[in-house]
Amino acid sequence: MLSNFAVVVRCIESYQNVRSCSGVVIDFERGLVLTSGSLLSCLIDTNAADRQSLATVDQLAKTLKFEIIVKLENNHSKSSSFMALKCQLRSRWYCRQVQEVLDNSMPSHRWSFTIPPEKQWDNMDDGTKAANTNPLAEENHSNQKSDPSVITQFLLLQITDTNKKFLNSDPIEMADRRLLKRGDVVEVISTPFGDSYPLIFYNSSTKGIISNICGKKNQLFLTDARCLAGSEGGAVVCKLAGQSKASLVGVVMSPFCFKDTEWTGFTLVVPIDLILTSLPSKHHPLVHDFMALKLPNSTRSNLTPNSDISFFDKVSSAVVYIQSLSSWGSGVVIDRYKGLIITCSHVVHPCNSNSDDDCNHGESDRKVRVLTTKPIKRWYNAVVLYPKQHCQVLDVAVIKILDFLPSQLSSISLCKSDSAISTGSDILIIGYGMFPPHTYEANEPTVTRGSIASICRINNKPMLIQTSAAIQCGTSGGALISKNTGELLGITVSKVKNVNSGGIYTYISFCIPVTRIYPQIVKYNQSKDISDLKMLSYQNDSAVGQLWLMKATAANYRQLDLRYTMQKILCEYSSRPHKQTLMISSCSRSEVLKGSYKKY
């Protein structure tokens, strides 16, 4: 019997032209399989002006053959066995509502959802690049075309093979997309590289969270679950509160998401109920049969959103959007009664050229704009209290909102003990990465999940936190949150970039511990003396400067706790035959401090 409802789908044009990806059996009794339209990307003219100029189902059926690959459960066999079942194409359609979100929020001139051209490969980390250039899948995974309209197509197949009796007959629960919220844990079940080598990759599982939801009607989910080529059409499941087992909540639209050639680390997911309700009723002989799959209100599961919803709303409401000149980043409200926000210095003092003068000139009355989304959505003017110019070692800034009421802001509890910051702790990073909230349809900051990978200490005090959570441009100044306590552990500053290849390590992020910031904020609140904030600079501490500039030498090793810190990373890379050079790369939407950050 089939182990579960996720399968491999194969499209055969000729013996030498076989393409494959993942799929989901949505109705075992009728043998209906849903998969991604990118399986037909080789037939789509990406320059076609009319997206409706699709080949008809009958035309495709004459030239293409479809089948699914299922894994058979055999307790008596020492190895897994697979079976190919013949299918017939029943329908092919665009999901218009998803296309509208892509057109509005992710325009094609800046966004790409496929394996990038050769010149863009170095903007993925080495591990992801290697995985997706696997020779097994180099020629036959489905994701090839760059036109976003390709990935918003879906195919409905029906199994015609008499051996479909091998399919599992257990009913599949499908969840209403309105129940999915940011922070919900999801599992993606797919087969990387399609039919290249199912013995190893068949129905691989990866987990992540719903990082953000796009569209006024929740038309598109972003998840930080890491997927590979061939995962298009894979099943996305989630166990909501009150459920005994997980429900099918969506289908992988694209395992890749690039902005300005930079890999974001996100997988795009389309809600299952949206896909099925967008299935065209006209010219479809089986439409009445499919209506049973569309979950009318009378038969929807009586579920409630997960209990973590209030937690995510609470911790993210203190994260704000900051605009300075033409750049933007994130910040965290730490005192709503005084309107104090901490962020990164390079967010409020962006460099707009390679000139040192542009980076170092000061403005005593520098003002920025702040946008809050909760409790209310509103713009505020703010003044930069510290620093007056971007020249300090520790990349931190303090700003104060003008003309506000405490009830209009939300603040967050701060971690006040170094002992509470520990390696391996589950964390969240929250910030306005990729999307400015005033230009797209979702108003919430993006959330990614990870853990504290290592902590760099100087004089036994945490000075730098490395995490495994994915971050993107615009996350600078965002919140590093303890998943267990909801306390602010630090602010996000940067990630690593290989300056030789240009590769960006999306899943390595560096944060400043809030315990290095909070004591100076307390002193300032008591004295109202700006000079008390100058201690945040660590200007005279060479060890801190060398740490954050990734220039630590052997003479510093006695002072630093080198458990998987940047110094150890440098040692590992320099020991390779081809020497690699790493540097910290800013994750704000601007150029930043020359020498320690890299514009990209």
TrEMBL record:
Places the protein is found: Peroxisome
EC number: 3.4.21.-
Principal location listed in the UniProt entry: other
Region Disordered: start-end pairs: 117-146
Bias-annotated ranges (Basic and acidic residues): 119-128
Keywords: Hydrolase, Peroxisome, Protease, Serine protease
Annotated GO CC locations: peroxisome
Calcium among keywords: no
BP terms from Gene Ontology: protein processing; regulation of fatty acid beta-oxidation
Keyword Lipid metabolism appears in the UniProt entry: no
PTM annotation: The full-lengh TYSND1 is the active the proteolytic processing of PTS1- and PTS2-proteins and in self-cleavage, and intermolecular self-cleavage of TYSND1 down-regulates its protease activity.
Domain of life: Eukaryota
GO MF term list: serine-type endopeptidase activity
Family: Belongs to the peptidase S1B family.
Function: Peroxisomal protease that mediates both the removal of the leader peptide from proteins containing a PTS2 target sequence and processes several PTS1-containing proteins. Catalyzes the processing of PTS1-proteins involved in the peroxisomal beta-oxidation of fatty acids.
Name of this protein: Peroxisomal leader peptide-processing protease
Taxonomic lineage: Eukaryota, Metazoa, Placozoa, Uniplacotomia, Trichoplacea
